[in-house]
Amino acid sequence: MSDQTTDSDLEGQIAHRTRKAEDLRGKGVNPWANDFHVTHAIADVPRDIEKLPTEDQIAEQDPRYAVAGRLLQMNEKGKVAFLFLRGDRGEMIQLFVKVNYEKAFALLKDLQLGDIVGARGQMFKTRIGKAAMRVEELRLLTKAIRPLPGKLLGGQDVKDVESRYRQRYVDMISHPEVAEVFRKRARLVTEMRRFFDDRGYVEVETRTLLSTNGGAAARPFVTHHNTLDMNLYLRIATELDLKRLVVGGIDRVYEIGRIFRNEGMDRFHNPEFTTIEFYQAYATYEDLMVLTEQLFERLAVAVCGGTEITYQGQSLSLKAPFCRLSMRDAVRAALPDAPVDDREALVRYVTQRLHETPHTEHAGTRMDYGHALTHLFEEHVEGTLIQPTFITEHPIEVSPLSRRNDRTPEFCDRFELFLVGKEFANAFSELNDPIDQRARFQSQVALKAAGDTEAMDYDEDFCRALEHGMPPTAGEGIGIDRLAMLLTDQPSIRDVILFPQLRPEGA
RNA sequence: GAGCCGGUAGCUCAGCCGGUAGAGCAGCGGCCUUUUAAGCCGUUGGUCCUGGGUUCGAUCCCCAGCCGGCUCACCA
User: Which among A426, A430, A429 has a CA at the least distance from the CA of A478?
Assistant: First the structure.
């Protein structure tokens, strides 16, 4: 205790706290003890002021509670001290330590903010009418060698988002509301599982490493297997394996899993993210629209308590039914002069517009009717779809895995669900005609040869699977991170991913 | 990948016209037997993101880089 450390920089504080821990060990106190028995969560300790005795009314038979939590504040007042501990949900308990309880009082000088502390005692009402525990036993359970930055109680919030994302543990200590976002995300996923389990879907886990890239339009990550001495792709979708399982006889199947796309990062994109994909035999995309409405309603109720929610100041209603609109009608409404039904004229129309707006990098490798229509939709409609809207009848060129519509084979039996101007779900009646599927893969290969880095590989095994016969099936994928953003009202995908991708910390 | 904005004490931030830096909180040493973001006395702490340049002199001006945020492009 003779240390006269005056350093207040980080190294000095760490050194001081480390010496403190060593001193304690020298006195026979384990600074990282694990023999304290908690009887109650801090949240579960009764604190109804009306029912609590004043200090001199405490009776020997009044219940005792043993709690533990992080020490966030210490007010020492001579021969008495008040401490605040915070528990696992961000709730606080006030401790009252008097000089009369000698051992407990003596420990105070070895405690520092951020330490994990255990306390045992009886609850009472302080002179200013606050609930507090009169501590009979006080224990240091974990010495925090490194001081916590910023706000504990009082002090300032840590606002530097970089350190918040890099050191999520610190972020969560400083901001209990951050932990709450991730609890809600967990609730969302749990509820989603229940929803599908209740309907007889089987949850599976398929492979992440693949030798062919498919199931979506995206650039993959490449990795290398040493023993096989071959490059493998990290999956960009779970689609093809799940449909293999439908061929194999699991009529209702889903996977909640991480997928990887080697593309840009921004407020709505992280290189690894989580999707649910589900497939149901003998269903159509129209059945899935109804199912999707039920799912979104249920998730909103479970996470937000109702179907009327707010996202970043916008009021949204997730109450069924959602609006349904074909892509052509949507484009027509936004651009009355676009020749939506004339395939060649529409390509010319879009090509001309692209020349007029030179800032676009859009490659000329895939300008056909389907891409032209989709381009107009994405440019002029997508961002305006605030309330939940199903966009149906996508062109075949942008849907290499979807079933053609029986009446208008240039379009397919597909929908995407949009909300707050973003895509949230993508679903279609699955293409199960192996001959057509081979042709679609062929055109993907041609696109890839022409420089389209997002085109799929020809998946021979998948075609072979379809040749064995896949029942008529509908399938859907939903981005869980975006859904979590929506239901927790977070502005950035980084706020719903525990450890979002950042550049490595500089040396 | 492009544009804009930012990086100063552990945290939040000031810092004028270029003269090598301040506050609050945290820390450290005291005082106080009912505090509530306690109070009072004293006190420590800085690679001003990095590297160049201009200058007698750079946290400040210029250039390059690193990291982050936002917008745009690609994508979900």
Answer: A426
For residues A188 and A205, what is the distance between their CA atoms, to the nearest angstrom? 19
Helix (H) or strand (E) holding A442: helix A434-449
Q: Which residues contact A28 (CB under 8 A, 6 or more apart)?
A: none
CA distances from A135 to A69, A116, A385 (A): 14, 15, 58
Residues A216 and A110 in one domain: no
Looking at residue A339, what DSSP letter applies? -
Q: Which helix (H) or strand (E) holds A353?
A: helix A343-356
Judgement on whether residues A37 and A132 belong to the same structural domain of the protein: yes
- Do residues A125 and A29 both lie within one domain? yes
> Which bases of chain B come closer than 7 Å to a protein CB?
1, 9-13, 24-29, 31-39, 43-46, 66-76
End-to-end CA distance of chain A: 36
For tokens 């064995």, the residue is A468
Protein CA at A310 to nucleotide C1' at B6, angstroms: 30
Distance from C-alpha of A415 to C-alpha of A400, rounded to nearest angstrom: 14
Instruction: Give, in degrees to the nearest 5, the angle at Cα A159 between A155 and A182.
Output: 105
Asked if residue A455 lies in contact with residue A276, where contact means CB atoms within 8 angstroms, the answer is no
The whole-number pLDDT of residue A27 equals 87
Question: Does a structural domain hold residue A79?
Answer: yes
Estimate in Å the CA A72 to C1' B28 gap, whole number: 18
In a domain, A459, yes or no: yes
Å from A503 (CA) to B18 (C1')?
A: 35
Residue A202: beta bridge partners?
Answer: A253
Same domain, A147 and A193: no
- Domain endpoint, select from A129, A158, A187: A158
* Lowest-confidence region among A191-200, A234-243, A285-294, A437-446: A437-446
Same domain, A119 and A261: no
> A281 lies in a domain?
yes
- Per the structure, the complete domain to which residue A44 belongs is given by 7-158
Could you tell me the pLDDT band of residue A215, with boundaries at 50, 70 and 90? confident
Which pLDDT value is given to residue A505? Answer: 67
Return the half-sphere exposure (C-beta side, CA atoms, 13 A cut-off) of residue A46.
13
- CATH number, domain of A470, equals 3.30.930.10
Q: Which nucleotide is nearest to A216 (CA to C1')?
A: B76
CA at A82, C1' at B3: how many angstroms apart? 53
Q: Is A229 left (phi over 0), alpha (psi -120 to 50) or beta?
A: left
The β-bridge partners of A138 are A119
